[in-house]
Protein: Glycosyltransferase involved in cell wall bisynthesis
Organism: Roseivirga pacifica
Amino acid sequence: MRILYISDSSIPSYSANGIHVMKMCQAWGEQGHAVTLLAKKTNACLDNVEDIFSFYGVTKCFEIKFFPSKPFSGSGRVYNLLLPFFSFGNFDLVYTRAIYPAFWYSLFGKPISFEIHEPFDTKSKWLANLFRFIVKREVVKKWVVISSPIKNYLIESFNIPQSEILVAHDGADEVDDSHGVFGLAPNEIHVGYVGSLLKGKGMDLIFELSKVLSNVNFHVVGGTEEQLLDWKNRTLPSQELVFHGFIEHARTVEYLKAFDILIAPYKTEVFVKEESNSNNIAKWMSPLKIFEYMAVQKPIITSDLEVIREVLKNNESAILCNPDNLQEWVNAINLLSSNPLEASKIAENAYRTFTNEFTWSKRAKNILNFIDR
């Protein structure tokens, strides 16, 4: 099958959406499909990355086409405006998770499959109107969403038939022994977090935990230089809190495998941008972090949110804690650090769930099977 994936992500960049897009293209490419990724060059792209495939830890089994070839001020808007002139072609499937490609294909009556990660009417009136236009045109071949609340939203707000919507949670790659392990001090407890330090991702809770649990080493992998400087300036010498900084995605597994416990303390409000008008995605999200944690067979402590419970079961494949109750997180860390049998049980159950349901390969196959049926 000839597949065109039209991306709105800045590639390469710090963002998780770029990881998602690259991993999906890899999954389809490894399954024998001829995949072309159409991506934009913006000032948000990292300019010191020599090999994009290596940066994301994906095999070079698909083609990437950039427009424009070099970023400039406003290049993202130019990309969105000129999409019809360079994206139409001879493909069996056109797929996107961005609203402007879906709009242009709807305007010209061309079929497209649309993956949605949050409602557009929560972003702006303009995007809400674009989305309503897309729905009315009825050219979207199939709808893919990352959580059940988004599916329910599409059904209730737009009367999209349930049979045309697939819930496909995010995923991760299976981890083999070829990956190294980051060296940490033996005979100590190491609790790790890998991800961004944006509002709602839980850095403030990790900070407080490091004050209370002086016998535990807390590790944070991720964050911009500005964010790291801010948190380092707040950290007291008595806190066992180590900031490793941003690590290219291909190497994060080395850190994940090194930690004893993995933590994802999402708040009830989670944001993907620094701007004050950024949207709260806590109700809709399917965090990549969770699946990457599951893949390395380490016990997970995360927040007791509806979207998390779609994937993990409390005291079976993770310990789910109230994001506003610090003591629950303290108790969970103490339990797993003092009870290796319980920790092993939770890690193994999460890994079994992951391999059965949540690899990128399975996700890619499920989506194509759904679209083709």
